[in-house]
Amino acid sequence: MKQALLITAYKNFNHLHDLSSFFDDDFELYIHIDKKSVVPEGVLNSIRERTNVKLVSRKYKVNWGGLNHLRCILHLAAEAYKNASIDYFHLISGHDFPIKSLSEIKAFVFNNKQHSFISYFKLPSAHWFDGGLSRLEYYNFYDVLDGKRHRNYIFKLVALQKKLGIKRRLSSKLPKLYGGETWWSLSREALGYVLDYTVQHPELLNRMKHTFCSEEMYVQTVLLNSPLKSTIVSKSLSFIDWTNKHGNFPANLVLEDQSRLLESDKLFARKFEYPQSEPLKTALLKTFASNG
Fold first, then answer.
1. Using one digit for the tens of pLDDT, what is the confidence trace for 187-219?
2. Torsion region of 9: left, alpha or beta (phi above 0 gives left; psi -120 to 50 gives alpha)
3. Domain residues for 93?
4. Cα–Cα distances in Å, from 112 out to 81, 116, 137, 186, 220?
5. Could you tell me whether strands 238-240 and 268-270 are parallel, antiparallel, or unpaired per DSSP bridges?
6. Residues 230, 88: contact at Cβ < 8 Å?
7. pTM for the full model?
């Protein structure tokens, strides 16, 4: 049973090399690297030379929070879907690393191949500030401004729109809106539905322009309004520590996290950051090797 890893990355390219080296030929890797990123040529060539790395794309400049992250995800998905032998697709980041052995990942997917895993909730929701609708009802300028450097400025522009009574209409023709986490694991049938919907109903993707983190809404909205809804499990298979720790939010993972990662029912974890996470990565690989 062949699987695909769709990976979006923008830094830590030595880690990306280690990540791509983990998987055998039962997995194909499709990688997008932010067009703005400076990548060591030697590392990039080493990644490209791996037989199971089928695509390393530099198509989009990706601003945190902007629409291009969703565009590059759909780009990778469309490229991977062309291979009719791939049965299952995982979206992860370049900061991810497996927390299960290859044999465990293969067994999990084989036993759950009729289901897709993506966390979801209806919007508006208490999970998100303002119920999440401010992401859609006001112009969020992450497409033109660097959200990590100018986030407060973007917030002020949203506040100004609220003060002036400027509000973007949510058309009644749009499907019911859902949100959740970015990262997912989808069956071929589910991913095919998302790609077909994107072509046949471009209005939803177009409405995602000038929103915030559209990749946390788009796939959920498409699938939860589809005939495949009963096959969707509201769960991400990526472990994330949503605390501000070890210099980052979400937390960078370190060696002391090993036990809870191995005990988790997830397949992947993030964030792995160089050099903090290197001892953890080494320990995980030793554990997988010792367990066969």
1. 999 999 999 999 999 999 999 999 999 999 999
2. beta
3. 2-113+237-290
4. 19, 8, 37, 10, 19
5. parallel
6. no
7. 0.96
